[in-house]
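To make this tangible, this section ends with a sequence with its structure tokens:
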Amino acid sequence: MELADLVAEHHRLGAIVHLATVMPDGDPHVAPVHADWHNSRLYVMVGEDARKTRNIALNPSVSLHYQVSETTGWDSLMIWGGATVLDSLEDKRRLWDGVFSYDLSLFSPGGPERSPGTCFIEIRPQRAVLLRRFGIDGRDVWVAE
């Protein structure tokens, strides 16, 4: 599987994913998020004080899992990687328009300049596994170069 295939699977399966981060005590924390690709990275808009944001500040390891359903043919996509919290005004301006498939002002109406408490998570995918029909119909693997 190539990176372009991974991005295509993201669009086929949908942008609502479950993001797993690691809590300070080592336990997993899972939350639904809306992720979108830009170049070779995934981005998520979050609150600066969200549990997932605080977890990534301590441990950058994350995993994404795409919702499995009958409409997706029971396919399952999992992505593992490293994450960084981006909270500068420059990053907000750079990511605010043209990256996400929804209007960010629905959640932060002040735009990049007037949305205190809003930041982004950048995910650098390192590997991914696509299980077709829970793996019954095959398994595709992607690993970053």
About this structure: The chain is about 20% helix and 40% strand. The chain has one domain: 3-143. Strands lie at 16-22, 28-38, 41-47, 61-66, 76-86, 118-131, 139-143. The longest strand covers residues 118-131.
